[in-house]
Amino acid sequence: MVSNPVHGLPFLPGTSFKDSTKTAFHRSQTLGYRNGYAIVRRPTVGIGGDRLQFNQLSQTELDELASKAPVLTYGQPKQAPPADFVPAHVAFDKKVLKFDAYFQEDVPMSTEERYRIRQVNIYYYLEDDSMSVIEPVVENSGIPQGKLIKRQRLAKNDRGDHYHWKDLNRGINITIYGRTFRIVDCDQFTQVFLESQGIELNPPEKMVLDPYTELRKQPLRKYVTPSDFDQLKQFLTFDKQVLRFYAIWDDTDSMYGECRTYIIHYYLMDDTVEIREVHERNDGRDPFPLLMNRRRMPKVLVENAKNFPQCVLEISDQEVLEWYTAKDFIVGKSLTILGRTFFIYDCDPFTRRYYKEKFGITDLPRIDVSKQEPPPVKQELPPYNGFGLVEDSAQNCFALIPKAPKKDVMKMLVNNNKVLRYLAVLESPIPEDKDRRFVFSYFLATDMISIFEPPVRNSGIIGGKYLRRTKVVKPYSTVDNPIYYGPSDFFIGAVIEVFGHRFIILDTDEYVLKYMESSAAQSSPEALASIQNHVRKREAPAPASESKQTEKDPGVQELEALIDTIQKELKDHSCKDNIREAFQIYDKEASGYVDRDMFFKICESLNVPVDDSLVKELIRMCSHGEGKINYYNFVRAFSN
């Protein structure tokens, strides 16, 4: 065996040599596992299996030497190694925080107790932050006691956070599964632990005792001095004597409430009260005679009896400080019975005599409780916005879902297809507007007006529909109360203003004169006279100059001659009576023109001989350049 040649040399700079005979350079294991947890293990041999010289100095001395290493030679000192890792279940094993608490539980179906106090112990396990609630078992308590909440982590809010020992303190309330616990105190270990973690504890509170348990500790027998009031004498004296009062219950302040009438009976024999409903014929209510059965009526209850279950249990003298008596029922005063306020407005003659003899009250007049209906509230409409008709806009204020305004059906049936037509000119300073002519159509069924402008060739203005059917408001009427144009406003020379445009009436048809003469009461005498004078002038024979001018116009003479010839040859045709009405039905604007296709369809439906040579020539002369035919001259050939 060859000995180590460098063995024994001092370990100084320059004298350290590598051992060439060494073949093992592995390091010892410093990490181990115990029960599934990693723990630190201090090695006993060094690199290559060389034995380490340890335990020569204590750990404290080694730490002190490590901190005092020379900085100039070896640099900055190394940080002290961290403390050994200790798992929570090892550090806090069998360490439990204990708190004393209680919670209140309601007892609804008992005459002896309304609530009970249950004392519990709350345990907090530090090793896994779990909690449990234990109620000490009381012998013969009749309540399942013991472990109320088994050991588990308890949620403290809806976000899923759990209770921590930092959330626990004396004098606070905690809610666990909908039940509120009041923590009043803790044990010594819990106090020391929380104070060591920097938590300031609240002062301890006194544990609340259960009132029923304390009551059980008192003596069972109690002696009550009997009353000297003779109830038998009261029964014999006031038997069959009843005070009758007439009262109302006004519930009109609530939704769907009403004012109802009742009769209150007070029995003098035992001071009981009965309330009866007053029913009327066809009042829509079930005929229940009694609102409240005969019973003694409490006036003032004790403080703790407000939650007494009166609908299940009968109330006794222990819950009542004062009962209603006959002196509380006075005409003209209100009294509250079981939550309802009744106003007494009258009583019967026996009751008046009793109050006069017993209490000396002589003035008990009847009080008038009839209510007068309030005046109807005038509905105010918002200002008109200018869109559509005023009647249509007002319907939005009468109902949530607007409906169309009601129409005068009888007027529409009587005046169906009755139209008044007028010829008007536009009053305008523009020279191009002086020769424009407009046909006003007034529909008697709906009081609407439409305006049509007959197209004129080479005028530079597109004719056709100028205004669709609508009601026209007079210029000087108010927005809230509009006044529309009527038949009496149309006469020769009248100025009609339509949405800022002024028109002057120049001519009318014969039907207007017949309508105004048949309904003279609806038209002014001046308007009727102006139309009559205009028609007479129009029917008067033309002057000689005009007749000569007509004779000079060969187109007019040819048209008149053709019409006379057709009237002589086709005078027996069957369609001469209704041909004008057929064309007027399709001429909605009363322009005197219809489309060419529609013209031939009407003639075919009326058996008009359009194949005749004379009729073809007449159609050619009445034709317009835009595919329309003037049916006025065409109808003259088939009329008398």
From TrEMBL:
InterPro entries: DM10_dom (IPR006602), EF-hand-dom_pair (IPR011992), EF_hand_dom (IPR002048), EFHC1/EFHC2/EFHB (IPR040193)
Domain DM10: start-end pairs: 93-198, 239-359, 416-520
EF-hand domain span: 574-609
The entry's keywords: Cell projection, Cilium, Cytoplasm, Cytoskeleton, Flagellum, Repeat
Single GO MF annotation: alpha-tubulin binding
Main subcellular location: cytoplasm
Protein localization: Cytoplasm, Cytoskeleton, Flagellum axoneme; Cytoplasm, Cytoskeleton, Microtubule organizing center, Centrosome; Cytoplasm, Cytoskeleton, Spindle pole
Source taxon at top rank: Eukaryota
Family matches, as Pfam families: DM10_dom
Gene Ontology CC terms: axonemal microtubule; centrosome; mitotic spindle; spindle pole
A single GO BP: mitotic spindle organization
Quaternary data: Microtubule inner protein component of sperm flagellar doublet microtubules. Interacts with the C-terminus of CACNA1E. Interacts with alpha-tubulin.
Protein name: EF-hand domain-containing protein 1
Organism: Nomascus leucogenys
The organism's taxonomic lineage, starting at the top: Eukaryota, Metazoa, Chordata, Craniata, Vertebrata
